[in-house]
Amino acid sequence: MGTRLKVLGVFKTLHRTRMAVFKDDDRALTAARLKINEEFRKNKNETSEENIQKLIKMGSDVDIVLRQSVVQMEHVAEDKLLLRPRNDLLLENVPYCDKPREKS
């Protein structure tokens, strides 16, 4: 795959991630869009293949961090927050067991 296509792919992935992570939060959606666009514009004249690969890797890492680490919270009262985790962040709460399950 060409470098240009990889860069465009990371750009689109970051915007899709932004839409999922900051769903229903217009202020955060706008701030993330501006930041993503600013960073890509800042580096659009980069010609070094090595630096471009590093930037692609950083963009992919940012995508992973956003998907795995960001949780939405909403103020519902002066001293209360409502946690709104995405379905992909929720894990099954399975108790630890030393004995493996028997196959049926």
Detail the topology: elements first, then pairings.
Blueprint: H1 3-21, H2 26-42, H3 49-69, E1 72-77, E2 80-84
Antiparallel strand pairs: 1-2
Helix pairs in contact: 1-2, 1-3
Features:
104 residues, mainly alpha, two-stranded antiparallel ribbon, 3 helices, Complex1_LYR_LYRM7, Complex III assembly factor LYRM7, mitochondrion, chaperone
Question: Can you offer a commentary on this structure?
Answer:
Belongs to the complex I LYR family. One of its GO terms (cellular component) is mitochondrial matrix. Residues 6-60 form the Complex 1 LYR protein domain. The protein has a two-stranded antiparallel sheet with strand order 1-2. With 104 residues, the protein is mainly alpha-helical. The chain has 3 helices and 2 strands. Helix 1 packs antiparallel against helix 2 (26-42). The chain starts with a helix and ends in a 20-residue tail after the last strand. It has one domain (1-89). 55% of the residues lie in helices and 11% in strands.
Outline:
The protein is built from three helices and two strands, in the order αααββ.
Strand neighbour order, sheet with most strands: 1-2
User: How many structural domains can be distinguished in the coordinates?
Assistant: 1
- Write down the overall mean pLDDT: 88
- Span from first to last CA? 45 Å
Structural class, by secondary structure, is mainly alpha
> What is the number of strand segments?
2
The largest pleated sheet is described as:
2 strands, antiparallel
What order do the helices and strands follow? HHHEE
Percent helix: 40-55%
Uncertain segments of ≥5 residues (pLDDT<50)?
none
**Percent strand:** 5-15%
Tertiary shape: flat
Number of helices: 3
Indicate the radius of gyration in whole angstroms: 19 Å
Pfam family, one: Complex1_LYR
Family: Belongs to the complex I LYR family.
Protein name: Complex III assembly factor LYRM7
GO molecular function: protein folding chaperone
